[in-house]
TrEMBL record:
Its EC number is 3.5.2.3. It is an enzyme of class 3 (hydrolase). Residues 52-236 form the Dihydroorotase catalytic domain. SUPFAM superfamilies: Composite domain of metallo-dependent hydrolases, Metallo-dependent hydrolases. It comes from Ectopseudomonas khazarica. Residues 342-421 form the Amidohydrolase domain. CDD domains: DHOase_IIa. The lineage of its organism: Bacteria, Pseudomonadati, Pseudomonadota, Gammaproteobacteria, Pseudomonadales. It comes from the Bacteria. One of its GO terms (molecular function) is dihydroorotase activity. This is Dihydroorotase. Pfam families: Amidohydro_3, DHOase. PANTHER family: ALLANTOINASE. InterPro entries: Amidohydro_3, DHOase, DHOase/Allantoinase_Hydrolase, DHOase_cat, Metal-dep_hydrolase_composite, Metal_Hydrolase.
Amino acid sequence: MRTAILGARVIDPSSGLDRVSDLYLDGGKLVAIGQAPAGFTADKTLDAQGLVAAPGLVDLSVALREPGYSRKGSIATETLAAAAGGVTSLCCPPFTKPVLDTPAVAELILDRAREAGHTKVFPIGALSKNLAGEQLAELVALRDTGCVAFGNGLDSFRNSRTLRRALEYAATFDLQVIFHSQDFDLAEGGLAHEGPTASFLGLAGIPESAETVALARDLLLVEQSGVRAHFSQITSARGAELIAAAQARGLPVTADVALYQLLLTDEALIDFSSLYHVQPPLRSGKDRDGLREALKAGVISAIASHHQPHERDAKLAPFAATEPGISSVQLLLPLAMTLVQDGLLDLPTLLARLSSGPAAALRLPAGQLAVGSAADIVLFDPQASTLAGERWYSKGRNCPFLDHRLPAAVRYTLVDGHISYQS
């Protein structure tokens, strides 16, 4: 299939390209920008005047819920939701049942993702068997199956010596480790950010130090082991400062932030709505401002959805008994565009944090519009708007942004030159 995309504003953050131009696709690759190759005849032409053409978004954390949690979502539904949000490549965490700690589980996920064909899927393997933090999973075998990194989620290693050995082993094979830094003991039983809102509502608090204490330990062990590290779901201004200090010391560490942490604060909990129950929790306005500054400066180089779809019943109990998480990947691009609307980021910088930044953090073959690269492209209208939830593909409707009018609308998502989503 040969495709011509005509008249779009082409933005490629990785090369600095930003101009109105044409794109030519052939055999799943981007074969030319500007002038059509000699003898090129398009089988399909997309009129993209008024649209922005950008690298397909790269989302570093999308829970696909399969295998094991089909009532919450499936690979088919959640990758379609991702495509509707402009995502062409995504990483899925190992929180499945059984846990993604064997090649068999990784192969199942990859096979079903290929069958669905909506997005490319890069599994994150479990760092320890059954996420228990005691014995290493089959890391090399998982890598050879297709896992691009390894993590334990918020189920952190309680024993620092065991974690150190795990990091040294990973470093030996140049495997990347993803940290969700939260001290188990400081966070245990907590439901919300420790502060005035939690006190007013009578909710058990999770202090900022639950993140910073664990983050300080993890950074020191990364420095000692030499492992490639990515810090996921940074929630506090102080945590972002620790990442910045580590980068200034020359540590090759990267970090991402959940999009909802850039938009919401713990004050959203004031009505006890379980839609705002997330782990790690929404933090203070000061923390949100610190995260935004770190994002602007590039200390945090990636925005992720941290999509966690749930069935309806999971959010119907009293706040403390509900399951944490927001279904958000379908709104990734329109919701992120509020950061441009608010003047925090210009459009090329936002697209960098959604594509080239996350791709570079995990060394993924994605996130750029370069001749010869895969034709993974999102075409969106920056002047239109999206009514969140009007068409909803995720199984989980646990999203506080539903029925909101959001800036920008995804028109086409192309994966390897094929249209995987069209509005």
